[in-house]
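Re: adenosine-5'-diphosphate structure - here you go.
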Amino acid sequence: MKIVLENLTKKFPSRNKKQPEDVIAVNNFTFEIPDGKLIGLLGPSGCGKSTTLNLISGLQMPTSGKIFFGEDEVTHLPPENRGVGLVFQNYALYPHLTVRGNIMFPMENLKGKDKLTKEEMEARVQKVASLVQIDQLLDRKPSEMSGGQQQRVAIARALVKMPRVLLLDEPLSNLDARLRLQTREEIRKIQRETGITTVFVTHDQEEAMSISDMIVVMKDGVVQQIGKPQEVYDDPVNLFVAKFLGTPPINCFDGEVKGGKLLIGGAAVLDVPGVKDQKVHVGVRPEGFILDDNGPLACDFGAVEVMGRDITVVSGHASATVAQIRSIISAENRVDPQGGKVRFALKSYKTHLFDWNTEERIRFSAR
Ligand code: ADP
Ligand code: MG
């Protein structure tokens, strides 16, 4: 089922006497989440991700704007009437109940036509438990399970009422690195199998990029960009988005455009046809550097880190705004610094310019 957010805004009264203005946690959010897709809601802490999710679930009411599930407006429906499954960072299981009891719990309160028999409930528990691969653990208590297993129980509990929408708020943050990787793949698999429209909140760009059909990048309550992960990575609309996506991060420089050429530290490093003369922020993706003894960008050589197929050249430059420039190049290259300098040419489609003041992207036609 598609979800439509229409000019959704949530303001909180300020508790800070020095700054009496309201906090705008979500600012005029408009987006149609397509049916059956997994959307990654991404941004730094405090940007309004949880508030957005709480508005969709009905745990909070918007200050203005509307929410539709399919064609039905749900803006003022209480959460229990929306058909949403919720999963939070802290699994919030009942410690005194077994896994079976925990998963069963949401079904036991169903009333009227939704009421299920004991057999129906047991069948559903079995089904979701095997979906998240905890069917061997149904008689355990939460304290007898690992964090990853507990989170699976929480996911099973969210799925058991067959929700129309699954909402996950940083569900992997309490897991260790390896388990986080594994569990995110499983969430993706379960989402594909069930086809439930899902919103996945995270501050971890890699996590969002790896499992989402589309990502929504937020900052200070405002949506910055929406698109397929690769599209947003390749074509960021502003400096914030460019910096937020990618590991290692984009390499930033202070630059200047003069006569259709991009200058970094006075050296013409790239043709940027059609861009008028101005000061700019420059971002170069790690994979945007070409090792070239005659390359125009001369950097101070630091180190080479071998990663197998690729190597990372670590270097510095007086105009760089990052302490270390990290360039990823094929391991077939020989790095041979001359006089302490390593020289690069830049790939135009991996080099982005941003307005000095607004930090909005300045586009140029790549040759
Ligand atoms: P995120 O989940 O992206 O970290 P939140 O949605 O939790 O961000 O918060 C967004 C902003 O709204 C923050 O500035 C936060 O301090 C503020 N905020 C969230 N909930 C409340 C609340 N109940 N009362 C006042 N301010 C809140
Ligand atoms: Mg949050």
